[in-house]
Amino acid sequence: xxxxxxxxxxxxxxxxxxxxxxxxxxxxxxxxxxxxxxxxxxxxxxxxxxxxxxxxxxxxxxxxxxxxxxxxxxxxxxxxxxxxxxxxxxxxxxxxxxxxxxxxxxxxxxxxxxxxxxxxxxxxxxxxxxxxxxxxxxxxxxxxxxxxxxxxxxxxxxxxxxxxxxxxxxxxxxxxxxxxxxxxxxxxxxxxxxxxxxxxxxxxxxxxxxxxxxxxxxxxxxxxxxxxxxxxxxxxxxxxxxxxxxxxxxxxxxxxxxxxxxxxxxxxxxxxxxxxxxxxxxxxxxxxxxxxxxxxxxxxxxxxxxxxxxxxxxxxxxxxxxxxxxxxxxxxxxxxxxxxxxxxxxxxxxxxxxxxxxxxxxxxxxxxxxxxxxxxxxxxxxxxxxxxxxxxxxxxxxxxxxxxxxxxxxxxxxxxxxxxxxxxxxxxxxxxxxxxxxxxxxxxxxxxxxxxxxxxxxxxxxxxxxxxxxxxxxxxxxxxxxxxxxxxxxxxxxxxxxxxxxxxxxxxxxxxxxxxxxxxxxxxxxxxxxxxxxxxxxxxxxxxxxxxxxxxxxxxxxxxxxxxxxxxxxxxxx
Length: 574
Ligand SMILES: Nc1ncnc2c1ncn2[C@@H]1O[C@H](COP(=O)(O)OP(=O)(O)OP(=O)(O)O)[C@@H](O)[C@H]1O
Ligand SMILES: [Mg+2]
Fold this sequence. Notes:
Layout: E1 10-13, E2 18-24, E3 30-32, E4 42-43, E5 46-47, E6 54-57, H1 59-63, E7 73-74, E8 88-90, E9 93-95, H2 97-116, E10 123-126, H3 132-144, E11 162-165, H4 166-178, E12 183-190, E13 195-202, E14 206-215, H5 220-237, H6 242-246, H7 249-268, E15 271-278, E16 280-287, H8 288-315, E17 323-327, H9 334-343, E18 349-351, H10 357-385, H11 396-402, H12 404-417, H13 422-428, E19 432-434, E20 440-446, E21 452-458, E22 466-473, E23 481-489, E24 495-496, E25 502-510, E26 520-527, E27 533-539, E28 544-549, H14 558-570, E29 572-573
Parallel strand pairs: 1-10, 6-29, 10-11, 12-17, 14-19, 17-18
Antiparallel strand pairs: 1-2, 2-3, 2-4, 5-6, 5-7, 8-9, 12-13, 13-14, 15-16, 20-21, 20-23, 21-24, 22-26, 23-25, 26-27, 27-28
The protein binds adenosine-5'-triphosphate and magnesium ion.
């Protein structure tokens, strides 16, 4: 194998309907690697079989929707990532979403490795809207597929797959490719299963997310469903029993394949025909105008979500944006651009590689992580070699200020080690990629009107890492303990109703005896860059302390993970 294969920077866009893998070539350019069927993207469809070792992924599996019983075909699994109760059963075997996703990753990596050499590390993308559970589930899918990430966690000695939000990845790619300075960009990402709308600041030095909006359950699939309903309504006139089609997974699978094809044709042409047989043949012609009419409620919803996000952003002080960046295969539909032009007149719209930009951005991000780690190592080595070991450990920023020649040498050495142009290392090293939280975190507390509500400490759209300390007070004299009920929500207000949030953890802080009512308890929430939440509660006079970490509730159990790993390792994935 070529030596440089050890240093591959790989990004994988693990999509709801299609996935894409890219790496950064020796010139520093991100390149999409085609699968062995010749496609730049691979359908995220997994065909299971009665033999647990035989798994088919991609185009072939998708085609089998029309021929195999529904239990053997799994698609849209991304919508179930991190969901505790989701399981797919075949012959008594339970498959979790993490394992199904691992098969998709394994196929992508296997096909790519045949062309670019062994792949052991990758950055995987997820929707900006994913919370802790879903991000953790995505990283776990990577682990099950035998992949590691690029950052060594000193505490565990593990390099867990790095996760980057899809809009950030797309903006990172866009920022590096266009290098316009200081733009605020609205990324409108309409994929197959999710709609994300994100406001980001893109500068020469950084990509920072500012505000997040969207809907987990809105994507091209919903356009397909509406068109399928229409086709079945028309087919009824040809004598087809449309109710029976809905309960026949193969017939429905066949129809969905035809509908998606017709939808794509309507992107290029004014008319398309769906030929569908279910006992009898139906030929349903549909015009683009009719398709646009049928799907208008879905498009309207994306615009509403853009408006909601922009309103939130305005509340944070971001009142204008310079450009719209279209991401996701569904933005190819002419209705999307037309509508955005009407809603946001005068704002330029960038439409560039909508189904590859995320994977390419993830690959560049992988390279950034690799380069940053190596540059830091080189800086420390130079300091040690030149008898300045006391200065080792300083950050790149600090060294840039005080010893620019050290940084120059470190970058040159890094470029040599990774066989990259020095210019590429200089461009990418130290670039900031700022993430924000897509959820708010708070605790249950009595408000000024003595009503139990949720007081949000870390609020949605806060920059990561975030740390907030706030004082609360005991309610009664000699209260034996204080209960901390930690809540997660999508709302960014300081105070929200209990029903608007979900309980994610509970802890009890014992209190010293004889404590008067109104004694302060300090609560601290720390949310790290990966979205892991740590909390601390402290009663000031006694220094009684309670600390904890919010474990992801939906994480698959150790036993399930071991079983899944065995199966993924043993499986022949083609
Ligand atoms: N030419 C086209 N016209 C209309 N729709 C298209 C076209 N090409 C692809 N699509 C649709 O785009 C969607 C796939 O886009 P993409 O690959 O960006 O989504 P994804 O990454 O699977 O989903 P998500 O990002 O939501 O997880 C599918 O619904 C597909 O039918
Ligand atoms: Mg996508």
